[in-house]
Amino acid sequence: PLCCSLGKAVRASWRERRHLKRGVKRLSSLAPEVLSVFVPPFASREDSQAPSISGTALNKVRRRSFRKKREKPRMEAWKSPPGDPRGPDPEDVSIPGGVDLLALPQLCFPGGMCAASEPREDSVHFLVLTDICGNRTYGVVAQYCRPLHVGGSLLPSELGLGCFVVVKCVHQAFSAVRQVCSVLLTHLKLCKDFEVDNCIKDFAARLSLIPSPPPGPLHLVTFCSRLGAGRRFCCCPQVLSCLLTERRIVFFSSDWALLTLIASCFMVYLHPLQWQHTFVPILSGQMLDFIMAPTSFLMGCHIDHFEEVSQEADGLILIDIDHGSVTCSKSSDHDRDIPDVPLLPAQTFIQRIQSLQLYPELHLAHLSSSTDLNEGRARHRAWQQTLNCKIQHIALQLLVDVFREVKNHLNYEHRVFNSEEFLKTRAAGDQQFYKQVLDTYMFHSFLKARLSGRLDAFARLDLDTQSEEDRIDRMLMSPRRPTVEKMASRKFTPLHITHRRLVVSMPNLQDITLPDLPPKNSSLRTMDTSPCSSSSPVLNMAPKTTYTFKIPEIHFPLVSQCVQAYYTDFITLLSKAMGLLGPGDSLLLARYFYLRGIVHLTQGQLLNALLDFQNLYKTDIGIFPADLVKGTVESMSASERTQAERMPELRRLITEVMDKPGEPPKVDDPVKNFELPKKHMQLSDFVRRVQESGIVKDATIIHRLFDALTVGQQKQIDPDTFRDFYTCWKETEAEAQEVSLPAMVMDHLDKNECVYKLSSSVKTNRGVGKIAMTQKRLFLLTEGRPGYVEIATFRNIEEVKNTTVAFLLLRIPTLKIKTVAKKDVFEANLKSECDLWHLMVKEMWAGKKLADDYKDPQYIQQALTNVLLMDAVVGTLQSPGAIYAASKLSYFDRMKIPMAVPKTTSETLKHKINPSAGETAPQAVDVLLYTPGRLDPAEKVEDAHPKLWCALSEGKVVVFDASSWAIHQHCFRVGTLKVNCMVAVEQSQVWVGSEDSLIYIINVRSMSCHKQLTDHRAAVTGLVVNCGKKCSEVYSCSVDGTVLAWNVSTLRVTHRFQLQHGDLTAIRLHGERLWCCKFLAVTRALSPGWAEPKDADEGHASVLDFQLLPEEEQLWVAFKGCSELCTWSLKDLARPPQRTCLQDCLELSCMIRVKRQIWVGGKGLSQGKPRGKIYVIDVERKTVEKELVAHMDAVRTLCSAEDRYVLSGAGKEEGKIAIWKVE
């Protein structure tokens, strides 16, 4: 902390004395000055010989105080008590936080400083100081009055004085620091004049002894307050609108303290968005010219200046805190009026705010009155924390409601935002708001966070409040056209009809053939966000749990011996508190490690500090102070550095922060706004442009689109053609969005069906009307009296013909569709549309057949994409060759001879999903992990569902809800290299072993990864859990032969073993033995002795994987480059193994045990072509029961789902997951 004493150190003049004697109550304003500055360290020269804090990087400032220079004032008795040694000559000191001492007096006395004949009440207000880099330092100012001395006599007059304290450690805990300063004022008023500086210095010294806790649930109870107290202020959507549009905002109040409090509250309500402009919540009277700045700012003034500011400056947003008004100063620009927050989010927000319980007396009325003062305070604090949590959550929900659909118009690969299309989806009354917001720095930073996949508070709430249908949409990374269910709801909500007119992009459509999803849970932590609900209750959720830690009392003289004793007691209390924590208290344990490391660092015990930071790195990397640790290592002496590097647990930490080459400075990747091309495009440029537009992402499909648009031309596309194609696509979307089906028609359709194409009005053999196409069927929307006539489902089509019918002298093109169930053939005189509909129906028919054969709904999704692209190509070219060009996009219908699905495969295969959906190309599925569901009333229903964890290339992890196969968590990263293994630990964690030698620990509930284990030195290749002991253990192995045993509660290594020659690829646990798979052998190691006998060897073949079957006492081993499995008896491993030959096998990749079967994945020949293949082997007969073929690429990984299903993941050529039924 930095403490300053401010005031006026001159005696009153003869004229002022005359005024005072005549009874004038107020003198003219005085110019305040900085009298003294106190900065750490506060060790005095008298105890410099005593043991003190070592001279580390934390203690470079030697000067303990600064006294303002005067022109050699004579020493007076009241200024220096007898026996008090003269301090050092004043000189400049380093001021922490970049505090400007010249401007400080005006901010500490914003209303001016003066002497008065009557004492004024003590007051406190708050300051926010911002440096040129945007870093904010928070301070508190305590003002009090002291008697004025004139000519050696004490007059009945008071002179205002102040004390400024930088409270960087407590950030924005304004209530807490107000209590701290109130205690200081009590002592200052009792001090004599010559004792003031000593009192302030003593206060600053004691405050400096309190370390700052990191963000989280831990609060420190200090000598006079609790650091972490909250504050509340209900926000106004109109003010948030001004902040989001980055206006020039000025707050006004008669209370200086409220200015900073209210302004800071709105900064919190914006979270995770950040105000990036000037932030000066308090302006003194001499600083009013700051409001003439032309750029965006947020400032605060006294209410006395309201009229002056409103008349002198143009275009300001004036917010009167005292009267609750928001006005705009004179402006000639009518477009700069205060924009309204979008209607539906604002209404929902107001309803939630109105349902808050803002009065503690009413909230606690049902409880008996407490006679214990501390109990009453605790109740009030709990009520306030609950209210604060709700207010902040409501503000965050408003931001989510306003910006939820932004992600639908982002292209993540090329960092493009299609603002024009986004604005088209907004209601007419909301256009002005969004136009202003889209041009702000704040929104640009928000887009960067979305494109970077940042899982912040906005992203988490967006995930928690989205519907099940939205979760399915996220598999496609794009919005779909409105379903029948949405059409039905839209018909009965007129407000919704006027609210928006959807004109959205639709890249990569999907045929949703999933079972009906379970209804939304009625958990207390969910709220109804439906726009048509009559009320929007506030979220009924418990506040985040907080914990307190009482620091040792600070009642001692501030000499080094006592300070060291205080730190020793602090560490003792922290260690005792850490010992009382349970296994699931890692969040609190990380905060204790952080605090103890800081205290050790302050003591100069660098090794102990680094050990605590190393434990913190493993427990919660999110609060790991990397810069502080790096500075500590740099300040170590050569002997200390050598000693630290001898400790294995510190060697890796030092490598992480020091030896790793620094990352090159990142270029600030801007977010581009989508623009139509202005130059001719070759293939590569055309692919990028189409992906940016959001029409299609799959590069293979775009290649076919390029061929279609360049038929008979030079292989390049001119800007006009692209513009016509883009316009045609958007117009078709707009027409489909405005389709309104009668209720009786919607009764015949599934709730998840969408109308993708409507023909013009045509004559058919079943009436006159329009032919409609959904992802499942064709039907006729009859004219006159609207009705529904079923034409065919794509599954039941038997034949599609394009013919002509004679009518007088004309031949009218006619489409004929024959179905399996009906004898009569449907005929439609489509005329000029006939050829196009013929192509589209055949493509959908072929795609549906493949989707049914391979149990893969993505085939129908791809067929839909092809069909809509055909329609856009025909509309773009409008030439005789347009149909031929569109036929280039007929992919499934033009497939020569699709690979037949074997009967065994068809019977066993249940479903296929695509974890790479929305990507530009398929990605290999490296590891799969199934975690069963759990019944926990405290969790949401969807969080309790079973999950499928899928590790893709470059450390990407996708999580599916295994009850519906919808994506639960789209994608987050664990490192940047390949994932080798995953295992579930204690239902709350997933451990991930990576090629980068780290073990990442994912919290299942929060879907976050803040823990890393760094003890391995090579790629982690295996993980296994031992749940037999009281405290769970996890065994891990790395390719260099290292085997580690981890205590799950403490994340400490309990055993370490090194296999000779390394090459360790997998481990298995059987009884008390840990079996290890090496490239050249399978070994076993006893857990107590960790011995290494050689058990099984098969020449010099490389061991790929192995499985233990304890009941059959068998060891099954697969070797690289071999097409057979070897089986040993556990009773006698010296005997030669039995061999099981795998027919047509080209390579093996993985192996698992399911019931009494061994499933082996790899690549083999099927119908003469290499395909991904799975062999199912009976363990008793040691024969192959089934050969399953459903992947285009090799099977890379297998996992079992409760022994009922087996899931297989394919290589990068296909990148899909197949679900197989186990018999």
UniProtKB/TrEMBL annotation:
Main location class: cytoplasm
PROSITE patterns membership: DENN
Domain of life according to the entry: Eukaryota
Compositional bias ranges of the Basic residues kind: 61-72
UniProt keywords, alphabetically: Cytoplasm, Guanine-nucleotide releasing factor, Phosphoprotein, Repeat, WD repeat
The keyword Transmembrane belongs to this UniProt entry's keyword annotation: no
Domain UDENN: 59-457
Protein name per the record: DENN domain-containing protein 3
Organism of derivation: Jaculus jaculus
Source taxonomy: Eukaryota, Metazoa, Chordata, Craniata, Vertebrata
